[in-house]
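Section 3.1: Structural characterization of target chains.
Under the original work plan, the team committed to producing a structural model for every single-chain target entering the pipeline before any wet-lab resources were allocated. The record below documents one such target. The sequence was received from the expression subgroup and is listed exactly as submitted; it comprises 342 residues.
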Amino acid sequence: MKSIIKRFVLFGLSLNLLACSIDKEAPILPRFDAVTISETTIASASLSVSFLEVGNQSITDYGIVYSETNLSPTLTDSKVSNGALTQTTSPYTYLVKISNLKANTVYYARAYVITESGTIYSNVISVKTLAIVSPSIKTTEASTYTIYSAKVGGSIETKGSYDISEYGICWSQRFAVPTIEHSKEKITGDVSTFPKAYSLIIYNLPEKGTIYYRAYVISNGNVIYGDVLTYTLEVEGYPKVSTDGAVYVADSVMKLNGTIVNKGKYEVTEYGMCWGFNDSFINPTVCENKGSLTVMPNSLPAPYSIEAKKLKTGVVYFYRSYLISNGITTFGTQKSFIIESK
């Protein structure tokens, strides 16, 4: 009888041990596929990581470790952590972006996962950030705009790595290699299409001598220049016109006086006055408000008058004489007037 009871006890213990071994599942560790590069910039790298198997253990952290010097980076190096993984089905792919990297630099990276069994790493890959590329710009030939001004320009061929904050033309009569510390005309703001051609007007140029000029562009605080070109004013043979006084006619009308001093060697096709008010129209041009004449006087010097109408009281007006000859506009000096309120 005791032998039978002993056999039953041993049989029960065997069943309990078998049940425990069945309940305790064998551990399955995570397995990585190859880590691949999705995108690189001058300061970041995006990596794609795939789990062939997420395993059956709790994952407390996963992500990417990377280093500039360690060919086999570990958790003691830099890392991007994603925290605990709740995904339970396989395969599973995730993206990691590594930021604040140096430009044009090689980094070593690999994926990691932390389980109760320890830390598991993927294969190591090397990734190189992009080099910083400056915009490319060229200077274009200048042309005469008026007798004492020129139209100059440039072309931004490519943008480079950073947004553009400013571009334009710089020039000098004294320095053969002008910079933006000398004279300049500028355009502010980024450029979205390339190549981007542009032109600017340089006013009040010297009557004699040559100017040196070149295009420039500013990107990320750095100034990039085009080639230096030269331009000499075409003053010889062009007419001269002077701006004279303004005479009050009525509350909204002023008579603006000018004089054709000499004709020059080319035919005069138009002359008159142009004007504008407030600072927006300093150095007014014929594209704004103007009064014109086309009949050339028989003798010189020849004074003439233009009535400016529909003027406002209490504001400052700028005005100057002009004359068009051989397609070139010559301006007199700028003057101003104000119609006082009564």
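The radius of gyration is 40 Å.
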